[in-house]
Design brief:
The chain has five helices and five strands. It has about 140 residues and is α/β, with parallel strands linked by helices. The chain has one domain: Dehydroquinase, class II (Rossmann fold). Helix 4 links the parallel strand 3 and strand 4. Helix 2 runs parallel beside helix 5 and helix 3 runs parallel beside helix 4. It is globular, with a radius of gyration of 14 Å. The structure holds 1,3,4-trihydroxy-5-OXO-cyclohexanecarboxylic acid. 1,3,4-trihydroxy-5-OXO-cyclohexanecarboxylic acid binds next to loops. Pathway: Metabolic intermediate biosynthesis; chorismate biosynthesis; chorismate from D-erythrose 4-phosphate and phosphoenolpyruvate: step 3/7. Catalyzes a trans-dehydration via an enolate intermediate. It is an enzyme of class 4 (lyase). Its EC number is 4.2.1.10.
Length: about 140
């Protein structure tokens, strides 16, 4: 049973990038915590990151092809721009949980719109690195 964790642009810089907003944990730290908790819950967790929109689309297709149990998707700034991601989520049957470290609704107006949200099973945002762990718990319960 696989849970795929897809991360979008600039999330490779986590830990160094605006730590006041995104925290000091790196994506590797988050991946290690997810793998540990996933194992305890009976899931294999695979974490990917790309700065390229199409790679995220490919990742969603891949989740479907591999029969993944769920996808956790932090699309970064593509959240607010990408109709392609919306379409890709609608094109697959695997449930997708939208994840954000920060709470986009508490930030600039341009972050208040998510193209991912209308097709997502649900959204977890605002809890820093814990957003991923909370999303993993939610995914495991689906
Ligand atoms: C983010 C929020 C987005 O608005 C931003 O562009 C990011 C990170 C988050 O995890 O809080 O890159 O998705």
């Amino acid at each position: 049973k696989l849970i795929l964790v897809l991360n979008g642009p600039n999330l490779n810089l986590l830990g160094k990038r605006e730590p006041g907003i995104y925290g000091s944990a790196t994506l590797d730290d988050i991946g290690a915590a997810l793998t540990e908790r996933g194992t305890a819950l009976g899931f294999a967790v695979e974490v990917r990151q790309s700065n390229h929109e199409g790679d995220l689309v490919d990742g969603l297709h891949d989740a479907q092809a591999r029969g993944a149990h769920a996808v956790l998707l932090n699309a970064g700034a593509y959240t607010h721009t990408s109709v392609a991601l919306l379409d890709a989520i609608r094109a697959i049957e695997v449930p997708v949980i939208e994840v954000h470290l920060s709470n986009p609704h508490a930030r600039e107006a341009f972050r208040h719109t998510s193209w991912v949200a209308p097709a997502a099973k649900g959204t977890i945002a605002g809890f820093g690195a814990d957003s991923y762990l909370l999303a993993l718990e939610a995914a495991a319960r689906l």
